[in-house]
Amino acid sequence: MAHIEQSKIRNFCIIAHIDHGKSTLADRIIEKTGLLTSREMQSQVLDNMELERERGITIKAQTVRIIYNAQDGEEYVFNLIDTPGHVDFNYEVSRSLAACDGAILVVDAAQGVEAQTLANVYLALDHDLDVFPVINKIDLPSADPDRVIEEIEDVIGIEAHDAPRISAKNGINIEEVLESIVTKIPAPTGDPNAPLQALIFDSLYDSYKGVIIFCRIKEGTVKKGTRIRMMATKAEADVVEVGYFGPGQFIPCDELSAGMVGYITASIKNVRDTTVGDTVTDALNPCAEPLPGYKKVNSMVYCGLYPADSAKYQDLKDALEKLQLNDASLNYEPETSVALGFGFRCGFLGLLHLEIIQERLEREYNLDLVTTAPGVIYHVYKTDGEMIELTNPSNLPDPSEIEHMEEPIVNAEIMVTKEFVGSIMQLCEERRGTYLGMEYIEDTRALLKYELPLNEIIYDFFDALKSRSRGYASFDYEMKGYEKSDLCKLDILINKEEVDALSFIVHSSTAYERGRKMCEKLKEEIPRHLFEIPIQAAIGSKVIARETVKALRKDVLAKCYGGDISRKKKLLEKQKEGKKRMRQVGNVEIPQKAFMSVLKLDEK
Amino acid sequence: MIKEQLGIYIHIPFCARKCNYCDFLSCRADYDMMKKYTESLIKEMRIESEYVNKKELKTIFIGGGTPSILPVELMESILQSLNEYCDMSSCIEFSMECNPGTLNADKLDMYRQYGVNRLSIGLQSANDKELKMLGRIHTFEDFLQSYYLAREKHYNNINIDLMSALPYQTRETYLDTLKKVVELNPEHISAYSLIIEDGTPMKKMVEIAKENPLPDETAERDMYYDTKRVLHENGYERYEISNYSKPGRECIHNMSYWRRTSYIGFGIGASSYIEGTRYNNISDFQTYFDILQKADKRDDITRLHENVESLTKQDMMEEYMFLGLRMMEGVSVRTFYEEFGKTIDDVYGDILQKHIDEKLIERSDDRIRLTELGIDVSNYVFSDYIF
To answer: Distance (Å, rounded) from C-alpha A79 to C-alpha A66?
Structure first.
């Protein structure tokens, strides 16, 4: 490909609240610029994974280069960097934004500004991006673009009166968006002759090429043979190939220079060497400073993953290894549980990330899993001065050795219509929230600010939020840090035996209630046996709640009519199948889903 | 050459009205419908008689629905055809299911004439309120009339069906039913606990009731134990989980299900087990009529069959256990070895020991049987014998 002038490049992303039409607009842009005919378009080209399409969210950042012939008669190169769309992936979003020079803000013409709209705009402005709004879904009956434009100007403070009014779904006014990209998003800057400085915003493992680094060249030039160094991980390698992103394929080119977005391969074997946010430089002619903003990504949520069939342990291990090749934020290490046998303690960015990994293991690797209740990382300060990062409640030291404990706290912003402010505040109080303030955004909506313990929001907070606001509340959060907290470990004893996989950490103020609910829940989940089974919740040696599963007295299906043996056998097979899905603890069979009971304590 | 023994089951899917708890294949029908069904059934029997006559026909059971609802001439044509097509000479038990309110002297005379020698009468309860709640069309008095009429017509092998654990039933009303029934001295009593099936009016009734109308577990267990006690006191032997009889009056046809001998089913939905294969007939009337209309030979009617399953040795072992253990005689260690070429301990050793430890089964010499506790939780026991 011929040399591209910097002034003809536009690097941008699309930001939006969930469901405001980000991926659909991306599809339209790709289609309009003729990269693919609409016949070739699979809906939402950029959401590659089956799961992404199903859930309608972007999990991994995707990038595509598009050629656009603008009205000024010039040919422009657009690099569209699609960003992940969930709060679990905030850091990845921030690195993708850092690779751009501008952003299109998509706002739903009916719903207007939402919590993620704000969070994303602020994130984009933090990265000095030029943001221009687009009003989407103008063909909806409930669309009110004038009001939404006013809202954008009032609430966010960016100019919106000439925002393109579009329908991404029906292809209305997409041309206007393309022209705005040319006129409103600045061309990149940077010196092609300076020492190499490139930002990694994603990476991908390919079994032939090794790791493929997605990067934005800020300064300098990279080409085949360049010895590169990742400045944070210190990994070095020789470049085998550079190129740019065609739709669904990698297209090699001679070199990538300042201002360009593309990929590098260098026979790197592990995605951990190419962490998102790191700076790639020329090992022989390094730049003075790495690009700002690099952070080591830490797992926020941990849980135990066990194969339902213990013979499948090795399969689970292989599957986790494969997934990790592509997902540097997935951590795992082997652990054993008395109740569940051999498995892994796995760390995730958040609950969504956990669910995705769990689902991929089950679907793509055909594994049947037992998952223990997810928890956050607690900091346990021991009397001897040591600090432990606790990811598995079973490993909590004896209380006599604990000086104090800390738990992670987040700053949360919740946007909600006026009528639900009361019930949402009540929810936050129930979840041990600390009220920070409230701003009214126009007359009808408020932005609530709370500090909340992470362990109170990882389970079902989002669902509770939606149900208490009839779906109208939106929510965003970021880590604040660790704070001292009065925590204790709740143990569960089934038939007098402690079941390690059911232990969880809980705030002392809610321990009794949680213990009681947990016993009630387990009573529902554990089938009756030939003997009575006490279920107890205990803190240390003190039992704080108890339920009893009564002994089985009757299990007869006497009716067997006209010799219909097959029907009878099916019932027995079903029962047998149920037994197979149980875990034996002592002489009690516990169904696999009971290990997730703690997640459902607040369900009615 | 010794012929293999065979049973015949004939399904009559018609009722005067459907009982509130019923999820069997049955419906109300007009005369034309019954006539059409009778014709199709006769054709199915004619075509299959070629197979039946290769075997030794041991038992016949006409069940439903309510077979006795068929007008006398329609049932007569069925029985006549059966006698015409099949060699009945070795048939030792021929049962007809009847419901009070549908029987009369003509029908009973006619049944006898064609070889019916056992009646199974659905009573369910001797309490008229309970009968009404079940959606039965008869009173206890109606039942008595039918019963005495049957005795008058020299039926000397009669079964009465009973149910316990009914909504609003108390231990007292149930004991009263038991008492009234044993006074009649029938040869056989089937006693089931009511199971509330999904999609039945009974299910709905229980769900919308302000307070759960079903007897609690203790009351239910009491009724269940009362059944055994009262029937034992009156000379009945339990020979299967839910079946009691005077000595020598066990239902041979039903035992063939538990003993896994062959039976062939005619009519919609009817199950068969022949040549080591289980299947059932399709349950749609129109399809049944259409297929039989065009059918001429055995090959033509295989289209009636669905869920055709050729049993593997493993399937048969499972069935040997969970069907055999339903009977109080239990299973035989020796027979298991003779049939499968492996000892029962090689196949089920661990489970048998576990069940013995849990006091669910007992083992003496050649026999393995359920204990009283094992009977109470028989499904729990049986499912362990499924691979």
So the answer is: 6
